[in-house]
Every structure is written in C-alpha cells, then in structure tokens.
Amino acid sequence: MDLGLKDSTALITGGAGTLGLAMATRFLQEGCNVVVCDASQASIDKACEQFAAFEGRVLGVLADVTDKHAVAQAVQHAVDKWKKIDVLVNNAGFARDRYLTKMSEEDWHAVLDVTLQGAFHCTRAVLPMMMENRYGRVINIASRAHLGNPGQTNYSAAKAGLIGFTRSLALESGKFGITANAVAPGVISTPRMQQRPDYQELTERAKSNTPVARLGDPADVAATVAFLASRLAGFTTGETVHVTGGRYA
C-alpha cells in the first residue's frame, strides 16, 4: 500500500535509539527524507553508516531536546537541506525507575524534561512552518505506562502528560491541516531488554498475558507511526494508538 510519504521530510527525536532507527528505516522505505536527531553524536554517526544505502536522504543532527536553541538549530539544518519538515516524531525519552519514596528530584525532572519539555520545544519549533504549509503530522511516542506502573511515577506521569499534550495540540492545529496523535507501545523487545536477566520470564509472561501472545517488535511501532504520518490518516487526530498486542492492564 502506498502511504503517500514519498519526498516527505520526517524528523525523529531519539532517532538513533532502537525505536528511532526502526521508524527511520520504515520512513526511508516509504521514500521519505529522514532527520535523525539525537543527543549522542556517536550514535548518530553509527545510524548514518547503517543507512548508507539511502545516501542523500538521511541527515544526522545533534541536539538535546531540552535545549530550545539546540532544537532550533536542528530544525534549521533540516530546512536548509529539504526546505520543510512534514512529520515530527517526538520519540526522545527514557525510564529511570524507582519507587516514589526512593526517587530523587533529579530522576523526576530528567524523565519529565526530556519527554515533555522536549516535545514542547520540538513541536513549537516546527509548528509555524507546518501552519504556513497547511500540512503536518506530529506523532508523540507515549507508552502503555501512561495507565500507571509501580516504580514509574515519573515515566507514567511524563507519558500521560504527553497524551494530554497531543489532544490539546490536535484541537489547536487541525484547522491548519495538521494532525497530532500519540502511539503507546507496550513491552517491545529491544537489545537492551534482551540483555535483562529476566528477559525469558518477560517473554513467557507476555505469551500468557497478551492476547497477541508475544513481545512487540520495534517494527510494529514503526508501522503504526508510518500510517499516522501518512495522508491516509488525515482525518485521525487527537488519538492514542496502543501498540500493545491487546494488553492494557
């Protein structure tokens, strides 16, 4: 199915991480130009090497999404190369798990700042351009954890906040031809997760507790993001799509 993404420009924050790379791969396969935005230059360089076959269609930019000046520069680099940004994927984020009584203020702010403040800076940077072009797609990577997880008050609060951000943005931007949606992955099998000592236990638990009896794959998330980024999803906005294999509780 042609998603109509050819020659679009997509900027992905956290673009050199596992989910970011999966999304970048899918966008490139759909004919997009891709901006891999990440806070690690080494990871950006590695990602660009991985995408060598897509020469001329991948741009790596270094930016800490909590720094509005760095974000503005990253966006400008993309505009200088491709004149526009059609799709923004706010994917940057991480977990720093502890029970609330043991959680430091640093752990609290670090998680919320990257997820929420990062989405704020990046969306605000691209929105005027999208409004002028009367077209845009903003996709925020939330998590099933927005429903709450023990030991993740910071992460769950950040992801729940991102969903509220998405809904408000959808209401503000729809008249400009811009949609805003969230994707909430469940348990996704990543290299980091595969290194956990309880990985096999997690896999077996997923088989017994998830209607689609397996762990998710990064490609599952990327496929959902690609659809929401496409012109086919032009009447879908303000939604949260759970990519969890049917697991909610």
Automatic annotation (TrEMBL):
Keyword Repressor: no
A Gene Ontology BP annotation from the UniProt entry: monocarboxylic acid metabolic process
Keyword vocabulary terms for this entry: Oxidoreductase
Parts forming coiled coils: none
InterPro entries, alphabetized: KR_dom, NAD(P)-bd_dom_sf, Sc_DH/Rdtase_CS, SDR, SDR_fam
Domain Ketoreductase: start-end pairs: 8-186
Any one Gene Ontology molecular-function term assigned to this protein's record: oxidoreductase activity
Pfam family, one: adh_short_C2
Family of this protein: Belongs to the short-chain dehydrogenases/reductases (SDR) family.
Name of the protein in question: 3-oxoacyl-[acyl-carrier-protein] reductase
Organism listed in the record: Advenella kashmirensis (strain DSM 17095 / LMG 22695 / WT001)
Lineage of the species this protein comes from: Bacteria, Pseudomonadati, Pseudomonadota, Betaproteobacteria, Burkholderiales
